[in-house]
Amino acid sequence: MNQKITPDFEERLAVVWASFDDYDGGREAEFRVMVDELVSELPDDNPVVAFERACAFDSTGHSDKAVPLYQEALARGIDGYRARRTKIQLASSLRNTGRAEEGVALLTPELDAPSDELDDAVRAVLALCLASLGREREGLSLVLGALARHLPRYQRSMKNYARALVEPEDS
User: Fold this and answer.
1) What pLDDT, on the 0 to 100 scale, is given for residue 3?
2) What is the pLDDT of residues 32-81, one digit of tens each?
3) Residue whose C-alpha is closest to residue 95's, from 136, 134, 129
4) How confident is the model at residue 1 (pLDDT cuts 50, 70, 90)?
5) What is the CATH number of domain 7-100?
6) In the chain, where the domains are located
7) Most CB atoms closer than 10 Å: which of 25, 40, 45, 76?
8) Rg of the chain's alpha carbons, rounded to an integer?
9) Which helix (H) or strand (E) holds 132?
C-alpha cells in the first residue's frame, strides 16, 4: 500500500490544522469538513485518511468516533511517525471512553520502542491511563522519570524518586 504523502499535501494539511482554533465555539463540524475534503484526495484505503479523520473527531471532542478510525489506521498499516501518534492518541481516546486498560496495553510496548520526540507524550498518556485505573503511583513514576531528563539539576534524584514509587521498599 502506498502511504506516500506529497510535501504539498503535508503543507496544506498543516495549514488546516493551524486554523483549528478558528473553528471553536460551535464551528467544529466545519473544521472536520475541511479535514475530510483534504484527505478525500487520498485513496480511501490509505491509513492517513482514517488517522486524520480520527484526529479531527478527537480534537473536536468526539473520542468515541475517533477510536474506530484510529483502529482502522493501525489495521491498514499506518507507519512511521504517524503510527506512534496513532497509538498515543488512540490510548488517550480509549481512556476518555472508559477503556483505560486497553490504552495501557497499547502504550506499554511503546516504552521500549526506539526513542523519539514522542517519548514524553507516550509516558504522559500512559500515566493518565494508569491513573484512571487507580494506579497513580505508577503513573507518577512515569511522568517524574520523563521530567527528570529536562531538569537543569536534580536529574538523578528525580529518577531515583520515580523508581522508588514503584519498587518495593527494602525491609
Assistant:
1) 59
2) 999 999 999 999 999 999 999 999 999 999 999 999 999 999 999 999 99
3) 129
4) very low
5) 1.25.40.10
6) 7-100
7) 76
8) 18
9) helix 119-132
Q: Which of 126, 61, 64 has the alpha carbon at shortest distance from 91?
A: 126
Residues in the chain: 171
Q: Return the residue matching grid coordinates 489495521.
A: 75
- Give the integer Cα–Cα distance in Å for 76 and 50: 9
CA distances from 118 to 86, 94, 128, 144 (A): 11, 18, 16, 16
* Angle (CA) 42 45 49, round 5°: 50
Q: Cell for 63? A: 473520542
Q: Is the pTM of this model over 0.85?
A: yes
Identity at 22, one-letter amino acid code: D
In one-letter notation, the amino acid at residue 137 is R
Indicate the average pLDDT of the chain: 94
Three-class DSSP category at 169: coil
Task: Give 39-54 as a 3 state SS string.
Answer: HCCCCCCCHHHHHHHH
CA atoms within 13 A on the CB side of 82: 22
Mean pLDDT of 13-22: 96
Q: How far is CA 32 from the centre of its chain?
A: 19
CA 5 vs. chain centroid, Å, equals 20
